[in-house]
Amino acid sequence: MLLSADMGFGKSTIVSNIVCADPMSIWYSIRQQVLVYHICRYDVISSSKPEVFIRNLAGAVVRDIPEIGNAILSDDMALDFLYGKCSIDPVACLEFSVLNKLKYKNDARKYLIIIDAIDECETSGGTDLVDLLYKKIPFFPDNFQFLITSRNIERLLYKFKELEHTDLQLYEQQNLQDIRLYLEKTKQMTNEEIVKFTKISGRNFLHVKLYLQYCKDLITAVCDVIPESLEKIYILNFERVFGKKGDLFEEFICIFEVLCSLQNSINENKLFNVAGLRSKEKEKHHVC
């Protein structure tokens, strides 16, 4: 199944409910079918690498399906691909290490493979996770099923058109009901305020959550002017932190440039040095 929607409609929340379900949860019956899950993040380069997904999948098979796991562990070619050639040829790696072994598994049990935010695993070159799944999902046995979430990006929807597709944005009324229920349970508001918040939400949970956080940061009980979009909320928060003219942002921009180029964490002193800030500037920014 492919679940699609724009940002803020609860795709990752559904995945979280499944993966984290306890025995009392309504999601637990699905959780019991989960073999492996993979979360794509645009800022985590390794999450887009198909070999990472393949090794996680192979590890889950070894753990949960012993007879197939033993076949993988006793196959020198499979191990050679998994720990040597997988990054070079991920398609062959998946075939030799996992798919070829699953052909001989006669099991009625259902296994669920979850990939959250597949759109964030799409890269510009080579075989990424999107390409791997596009090519190889049809070769999995029928009892191995996929749950993939993505934003509504046409090329991705087309690539996975063979999967059953559910567009969460089609369920407008249910989304509005969920938002209203959330507001009733988490905030003390009048019915008029709840109706107003729900109306401007655009059926988008993230919009509501960020706006309420914006009001909280301003220590404002009631926000009279409600933003029309998520972008407006970001602009208001930007102005709150950096001022309406953005002068403070200009002073910080050299630091942001370094932070945006990083793939790993960096300590404060090194950050200032790489940004080329002098001692007095360091003190000024540190105070800010």
Automatic annotation (TrEMBL):
InterPro entries for the chain: NPHP3-like_N (IPR056884), P-loop_NTPase (IPR027417)
Keyword check for Repeat: yes
Annotated Nephrocystin 3-like N-terminal domain residues: 2-151
Domain of life: Eukaryota
Keywords: Repeat
Protein name, per record: Nephrocystin 3-like N-terminal domain-containing protein
